[in-house]
Design a protein that fits this description.
Order of helices and strands of chain A: EEEEEEEEEEE
Largest sheet of chain A: 7 strands, mixed
Largest sheet of chain B: 6 strands, mixed
Structural class of chain B: mainly beta
Oligomer: heterodimer
Distance between the termini of chain B: 38 Å
Number of helices of chain B: 0
Shape of chain B: globular
Largest interface: A-B, 31 and 27 residues
Distance between the termini of chain A: 36 Å
Order of helices and strands of chain B: EEEEEEEEEEE
Helix content of chain B: under 10%
Strand content of chain A: over 45%
Structural class of chain A: mainly beta
Radius of gyration of chain A: 13 Å
Number of helices of chain A: 0
Chain lengths: ~120, ~110
């Protein structure tokens, strides 16, 4: 099983809303990631969690707030987003922190539209 | 920042044709991964390469880790309509560089009209 599950599949929100994206994996992976992908572009790294601790924040605005409640779950809390934040948000996981011999598995993404 | 040059940017295929795409860089990479992404879906891992010169197959797909460690190619033999999509190469520069997976800009495969 190499499945990373993301919910919801689609999300439309206003700029004053608060919403959360959820990600779950049951592969025993200890590293989890959030990526943002604009249309026709490659994914861009946002956050990395290693053993449930935030290890990388790629200078992401504070309106995006990640949370890792346990080793299987990863959330991304959204508040006061801007229309330019509309994108496909991808969760990914790997066995351990990316050390060069790992495989990164992606979920199917949440397509976010900010109105 | 570090960049991967992926080519071609796009290509049209006719069913049954072989397809080839590659990624190059001026930097030495430790790992190469090849992904396929369908519209509105996440990238799916096709092949992972860890050693210079390594040649790995996955069905009709074959990928190689270049000897210089600065490039990788992906071949698809006898293409079928479901091969349509965007293919990304991704590489890691060095061990222990957390999250440092660099993506190419993608190769979009479409069906010839």
């Amino acid at each position: 099983d190499t499945e990373v599950t993301q919910t919801p599949k689609h999300l439309v929100m206003g700029m004053t809303n608060k919403k959360s994206l959820k990600c779950e994996q049951h592969m025993g992976h200890r590293a989890m990631y959030w990526y943002k992908q604009k249309a026709k572009k490659p994914p861009e790294l946002m956050f990395v969690y290693s053993y449930e601790k935030l290890s990388i924040n790629e200078s992401v605005p504070s309106r995006f707030s990640p949370e890792c409640p346990n080793s299987s779950l990863l959330n991304l809390h959204l508040h006061a987003l801007q229309p330019e934040d509309s994108a496909l948000y991808l969760c990914a996981s790997s066995q351990d922190t990316w050390t060069g011999n790992e495989k990164l598995f992606f979920g199917s993404g949440t397509q976010l539209s900010v109105l | 920042g570090q960049q991967l040059n992926q080519s071609p940017q796009s290509m049209f295929i006719q069913e049954g044709e072989d397809v080839s795409m590659n990624c190059t860089s001026s930097s030495i990479f430790n790992t190469w991964l090849w992904y396929k992404q369908d519209p509105g879906e996440g990238p799916v891992l096709l092949i992972a390469l860890y050693k210079a010169g390594e040649l790995t197959s996955n069905g009709r797909l074959t990928a190689q880790f270049g000897i210089t460690r600065k490039d990788s190619f992906l071949n698809i033999s006898a293409s079928i309509p479901s091969d349509v999509g965007i293919y990304f190469c991704a590489g890691q520069l060095s061990r222990g560089s957390q999250g440092n997976l660099i993506f190419g800009k993608g190769t979009k495969l479409s069906v010839k009209p």
